[in-house]
Amino acid sequence: MKMLPALFAATLLLTPLQAHAQALSDPVVAAPNPESLFTSRDPKLHRNKQVALKIVKELLEAGQWSRAPQYLTQRYIQHNPVAASGLDAVMHYFVDIAKVQPKPVPERMQTKVVAVQAEGDYVTVSYVRELPDPKTPGKTYTTTWFDMWRFVDGKADEHWDPMALPPPPPPAPDAALRESQDRAAIAQLEWDYSRAVDTLNPAAYAANFTPDGAFGTTKGSAALSKMIVDLKAGQAERRARGETITAMYHFMANQSIAFVDPDHARIRYYWQTVFAGPTLDPAPRLAAAGRGVDDVVRISGKWLIANRNVTPTD
User: I need a labelling partner for 34 at 20 to 30 A (CA). Which of 6, 62, 74, 294 fits?
Assistant: First the structure.
């Protein structure tokens, strides 16, 4: 018998990871006939259980909040940090704010109930609660929710549940940090653009633009993609004629990024297009050079090129 305290202590020392694994391996299971749990041989407990059943089926499931005065007292005290007390406040929330539309009361209870306990003036209903698994997108796990009511003369007068206040939203980054993040994202966009054109990747090239983005007079994803397809085909034809086509490199330098508004920036830069092989033979060839102006915009959180002009006049 001396081993019992040690075993009890070992149980208390289970790590949170072990406890989490145990909870996931033993799901919360609903009773097969939940309405049978809302009965009792004691007349008072039976009455209170039956009113709890009507609250769940008629108010919470069917949204028949016009019936609430039959089951809730006028003062109906809420021990819920996000709910107001009082019958009128409860009905106002569900009818006027949540806009719950009444529907027929289901023949059989839809809520997954685990257990119902009644003692004195109190009735506690435990439910299966299914939540998304934070570690595995697309999967869920089960835990338990409960409602506890205290009844007075056959009506619920006081209510408890495990609701907690939601955590505050994460603080928004300050202006300097946000601009620094945006500048880094725009620099990455310009790199992605250069790599796409230098590797002659039509899909990747068009993906750097908005759907109606433009390079000069070439506008739209399909036309931008075709421009790279044609460039690649032209190089293949020249190679077939015996020409040596070395790798293409685009350089952008002296970039200046100015924000027109939080979701629109203008980039001014100098550019060069150079053809070069892995050695100095043939020598690298400067094919073109100039300066450019790109208008970039943020769409759904991603910076994209709306217009690229490599021959600006201003």
Answer: 74
